[in-house]
Amino acid sequence: MKRRQFFGAATAVAATGLAMPAIAQGNITWRMVTTWPKNFPGLGVGAQKIADRITKASGGRLTVQVFAAGEMVPGLGALDAVIDGSAEMSHGAAYYWQNKSQGLSFYTGVPFGMTSRELTAWVRYMGGQEIWDEIYDQFGVQGFLSGDTGTQAGGWFRKELTGLGDIQGLRFRTPGLGGQVWAKLGAAVTNLAAGEIFAALQAGTLDAAEFVGPYNDLALGFHQIAKNYYFPSFVEPGLATELVVSKSKYSELPEDLQEIVRMAAQAGYDDVASDMYANDPRALAALVSEHGVQVRRFPEEILEAGAKASMELISDIRANGDALTKKVAESFVSAFNILRTRTEGTDMPFLVAREKYIKYE
């Protein structure tokens, strides 16, 4: 079956890209490894934009070279490359590394948890960043929010879901705390990097998969295998990506270059949000009109069971997690209980009214 062009555009890594960082006449070259395929819409392009912003804003004093998944290290090896010094930066999603600390999953997305606006408020203004720093200090790295997909799609399924019985034994690609919730519902959960999912669906080793949403999923070609597309995701309500940097390398930078890195990550977070919001509905329209995709909602039975499983999971983490994971969970829940009053008391009533009364030709 025909794959998208970015998969066919494999590029050999230049020898200079594998050399040690160049420092000449005060100029520095850093390597950013990512979990995304080459030229991947939204997320991969977003990583490249961050690199370009750093290079341009620093006048070339800090030049960042980007390596897509598989060009230097496998996609799910990106963080380890920064930890072991093979690269100075990585771009991915914190919940990919929950084997290092379950607390990291809170910085990507929590089932039935914070929207992206709420998550940003918690990280930037309610203590979330400080605990994130504590977790990553153990590994000698520093994390920054770097991209925002908003509420994601629920996933692609070969067969229509009519209730909980259809989930039992379902081989489903979905990571993080959301994956743990789906496992509680009876799915056989696995995680794969973006570039590996299509082949697993095509080979029949997966029955279903979720990644992000229409903009990315159209490019990945999932519609060629599965036609049932569920909305919205109840496990990834406001997913964030991360930029991770080597803490030792970062601390060696002059203060102005440190600020450029921070601000480039923040700009990337906001830019990806706009990119996804603009292109998701257009991609979804193409999936439906050109490829026969059926857009569906999860049955109420699944939503209710998913919410119950999510609360059980967070309660278990708060009671039995390691010290830092319990700390991040408590901070998350405290902020969530405050922030949801703003979302549910102001934003939600407005959206309900708009849906009911506003129609333009």
Question: What does this protein structure show overall?
Answer:
This protein has 13 helices and 12 strands. By secondary structure, it is an alpha/beta fold. The strands form 2 sheets. Strands 1, 2, 3, 4, 5 and 11 form a 6-stranded mixed sheet that branches. Helix 3 packs antiparallel against helix 11 (255-291). It is globular, with a radius of gyration of 20 Å. Mean pLDDT is 94; it is low at 1-24.
List keywords for this structure.
about 350 residues; 13 helices; 6-stranded mixed sheet; disordered N terminus; 12 strands; globular
Describe, in short, the structure shown.
By secondary structure, the chain is an alpha/beta fold. The chain contains 13 helices and twelve strands.
Please report the distance between the alpha carbons of the first and last residues: 39 Å
Global Rg: 20 Å
Determine the mean pLDDT.
Answer: 94
**Biggest β-sheet description:** 6 strands, mixed
Report the principal-axis shape: globular
Give the SSE layout.
Blueprint: H1 5-8, H2 15-18, E1 23-24, E2 27-34, H3 43-57, E3 62-67, H4 78-83, E4 89-92, H5 116-125, H6 128-137, E5 141-150, E6 155-157, E7 171-173, H7 176-184, E8 188-190, H8 194-203, E9 208-209, H9 214-220, E10 228-231, E11 239-246, H10 247-252, H11 255-291, E12 294-297, H12 300-320, H13 323-357
Parallel strand pairs: 2-3, 2-4, 7-8, 7-9, 10-12
Antiparallel strand pairs: 1-2, 4-11, 5-11, 6-9, 6-10
Helix pairs in contact: 3-11, 5-6, 5-13, 6-13, 7-12, 9-11, 12-13
